[in-house]
Design a protein that fits this description.
Elements lengths: L1 E2 L3 E2 L2 H16 L6 E8 L2 E4 L5 H4 L2 H6 L4 E3 L7 E3 L2 E9 L14 H5 L1 H9 L4 E3 L4 E4 L2 E10 L5 E8 L13 H4 L12 H4 L6 H16 L4 E2 L29 E5 L2 E8 L5 E6 L5 H7 L20 H23 L8
């Protein structure tokens, strides 16, 4: 296992580290990579497939000087109100650290080293499933996942030192405010749940050490940090980002993790953009967006937390049907009938 020591990075650099380490994890010889970045907010960090305007009020964020950025991993949004830490774990395949891990158990197996690290730093940790880790029984760390078609996996863990991770109500869109993401618990800043003597640097290192120790793999210094491409991680201003330009009106559906959303895309064959709060691989949603033309998929194809394949297929079909209706209407000249 290769590790990089915790380092202060701009938030865009910390987010760019994920794809860079994923490339390294795939390289020969394939090996897991782990790093920690100390970052500064404020910022809202959206999941890779969350439509911006469904999650945040972009005007309110701009007025308060809070950039909205997007990470490479799927899942729900994290608010960084001040100092924070981002752990980046890149795996060449789902069982690279935990031999018994599968697509279904990816997070459950790989989060255990993080739990040990938080506990060693003085905050007993618990993972109840899906997207967050509780410290001292309060949500305090958020998970993101990207699972590539070739089997490589990127896991990111976000935690805020000075403010809880929940998007503040004054910055959140109505659909975001409608979801109880924390199951009735009050999210916590790290400063509220860690011993006063524990620095952010010490916590970052404790978690890296614990993940590496639990992996029971030879640990190798990763050497120089990779060159980082920060361009994709700059502030977002388009409300429908990341839906492609020309996508139709979004349709949404409630699922256990929050929301999923879809929009018909132009061109032939008919396709839909699929997004939302789910933890999965982007390629899986792209495939499901092909509707009836999608390749056969099952629950073991890729990690999927927070919604079912049936939920996603149904929403993709709704978007495709809505897109077909719009095309038919335009083709008829917008008239309800003929004489």
């Amino acid at each position: 296992m290769r590790t990089l020591p915790p380092a202060h990075r701009p938030l865009a650099g910390a987010l760019a580290l994920g794809p860079a380490l994923l490339d390294r994890a795939r390289a020969s010889p394939a090996a897991p990579w782990l790093a920690a970045s100390l970052v500064d907010g404020p910022a809202v960090v959206l999941g890779a497939l969350q439509r911006a305007a469904r999650v945040v009020d972009l005007a309110a964020c701009a007025a308060r000087g809070v950039p909205v950025v997007r990470r490479a991993t799927t899942g729900t949004a994290a608010f960084l109100g001040g100092r924070g830490v981002v752990w980046t774990l890149a795996l060449p395949h789902v069982a690279a650290l935990a031999p018994d891990a599968t697509a279904r158990t990816l997070l459950n197996r790989n989060v255990r080293g993080f739990l040990k690290g938080f506990a060693r730093a003085g905050a007993p940790a618990h993972y109840g499933g899906r997207e967050w880790i509780a410290l001292q029984h309060r949500p305090a760390a958020l998970l993101g996942v990207e699972a590539a078609r070739d089997g490589a996996v990127l896991i990111e863990v976000f935690a805020g030192q000075d403010a809880p991770l929940a998007v503040p109500a004054e910055l959140a869109a109505p659909d975001e405010r409608a979801v109880d993401r924390w199951l009735g618990k009050a999210p916590a800043a790290l400063a509220e749940v860690l011993p006063a003597r524990t620095s952010l640097e010490a916590l970052a290192q404790a978690v890296v050490d614990a993940v590496a120790l639990r992996a029971a793999l030879p640990r190798v210094d990763g050497g120089e940090a990779p060159e980082l491409a920060e361009g994709p991680f700059q502030p977002i201003t388009a409300p429908d980002d990341p839906a492609p330009p020309g996508a139709g009106a979004a349709v949404v559906a409630r699922v256990p993790i929050g929301w999923i959303e879809a929009a018909a895309l132009g061109g032939a064959p008919a396709r839909a953009w699929l997004g939302g709060d789910v933890l999965t691989g982007r390629w899986l949603l792209e495939e499901l967006g092909r509707g009836e033309a999608a390749a056969p998929l099952d629950a073991g194809t890729a990690p999927l937390e927070g919604a079912s394949l049936a939920d996603l297929r149904a929403l993709a079909q709704r978007a495709l049907s809505a897109g077909a209706a719009v095309r038919d209407h335009r083709g008829s000249g917008g008239h309800g009938g003929s004489s």
